[in-house]
Specification:
Number of domains: 2
InterPro entries: Nudix_hydrolase (IPR020476), NUDIX_hydrolase-like_dom_sf (IPR015797), NUDIX_hydrolase_CS (IPR020084), NUDIX_hydrolase_dom (IPR000086)
Number of strands: 11
Radius of gyration: 18 Å
Keywords: Hydrolase
Structural class: alpha+beta
Protein name: ADP-ribose pyrophosphatase
Strand order of the largest sheet: 1-2-3-4
GO molecular function, one term: pyrophosphatase activity
Strand content: 35-45%
Family: Belongs to the Nudix hydrolase family.
Largest sheet: 4 strands, antiparallel
Number of helices: 3
CATH superfamily of the largest domain: Nucleoside Triphosphate Pyrophosphohydrolase
CATH architecture of the largest domain: Alpha-Beta Complex
Helix content: 10-25%
């Protein structure tokens, strides 16, 4: 038995396992006192990187993701934190793989983008002192990924109009804009 705030978990079981995440079902008592099964996804943490150029631009990536099926969706460079990898190491790896860049990383926060579905967090980094020019190292699912720099004002507009369709990316862009003002 495990107390989790006003919730009580009595049992947990793995329902399904895939290469990137698992589905679990917990037997719980809800804050209102009802006994229930609570299904959730166990997945690795993620990272997003706001890579800033000396000219004040920010790198975004455009990629067609299979599930939203929305052409031209923007987000910030990022991806999953590997087993045994720190969020900072994952951020550096993703920045290099997707943009071909290295830089100085600063963790500015962590968010839970889907707290009712998963405990997976997205760690938000700002990268400065960029050195761009290395070859990107995209995997097969990223073959259509294109990275490019835009003025911060354009990234803010994209966060507000939904062009940046990734919520942690939008949050990080707005955070960078607010702290840069």
């Amino acid at each position: 038995m495990e107390q989790r705030g006003p919730w009580m978990r009595y049992a947990t079981e793995e329902v399904w396992r895939g290469p990137f995440f698992q589905v679990r079902s917990d037997r719980v008592t809800t804050p209102g006192g009802a006994e229930s099964d609570y299904s959730w996804v166990e997945a690795p943490d993620l990272v997003r990187v706001a890579a800033r150029t000396a000219a004040g631009e920010i790198y975004v990536v455009r990629q067609h993701h299979y599930l939203p099926d929305r052409p031209g969706m923007w987000q910030l460079p990022g991806g999953g934190v590997g087993d045994g990898e720190t969020p900072e190491a994952a951020a550096a790896r993703e920045l290099h793989e997707e943009v071909g860049a290295t830089g100085t990383l600063k963790l500015v926060g962590s968010v839970w983008p889907m707290p009712g579905l998963t405990a997976s967090r997205t760690h938000l980094f700002v990268a400065g002192d960029l050195r761009v020019g290395d070859e990107t190292e995209l995997d097969e699912s990223e073959a259509d990924l294109v990275a490019f720099a835009v003025p911060l004002s354009r990234a803010v507009a994209a966060a507000l109009d939904g062009t940046i369709g990734c919520a942690p990316s939008a949050q990080l862009v707005l955070s960078v804009a607010l702290t840069s003002a």
